[in-house]
Amino acid sequence: MRRLARLVSxxxxxxxxxxxxxxxxxxxxxxxxxxxxxxxxxxxxxxGDFVLDVTRALAPRxxxxxxxxxxxGFYDDSRFYRVIADRxxxxxxxxxxxxxxxxxxxxxxDDPPLASNVRGTFAFAMTGxxxxxxxxxxxxxxxxxxxxxxxxxxxKVIEGMxxxxxxxxxxxxxxxxxxxxxxxxxxxEEGNGYLDREWPNLDKLVRARVVRETTH
Length: 216
What we know:
Blueprint: H1 2-23, E1 38-45, E2 48-55, H2 60-71, E3 78-79, E4 82-84, E5 88-91, H3 97-103, E6 121-124, E7 136-139, E8 155-159, H4 161-166, H5 185-190, H6 192-198, E9 204-214
Antiparallel strand pairs: 1-2, 1-9, 2-8, 3-9, 4-5, 5-7, 6-7, 6-8
């Protein structure tokens, strides 16, 4: 019953206020609701589709934040702005700067790492304790060294890992690196306009959708 009520509440909110309205109000109660115990997210890109399988028990706070960001359309029409071959592919700054700025510093508490950063897993990027916001990286190589730094994977790619591996990596750190050094300013200020103009080969995240969920 609680699960049904949560879904009805979120669905009603989206129907009445629209996705953009929810994204403009990060204090809305809908953002505090627990995600399903497991769920899958299909991400459509300019290189093809891939599917993420999320297990909430691995990192509950991260799984909750990601679920609602996907459901609200936050990631739609954005870019894979930081791709390092055989290491990771990163996304998660909204394409619309007015939305990106709202969430830029909307951090949430850490989860203790319960899974390792091996190839195919994904987690929230961060610059230190309790600094996760909206940015996600997918490990395209073994990055288990990140475990000791507190990066907490909460799922894995179960379909389309070859797609993730083909995302354009020619710009390296130039197009979207510098999260720790505070060098992502123009991504938040200008969004897709800046990336498409200065870094036109970046692959596009067309849209992300929850396609399956399970509650035990």
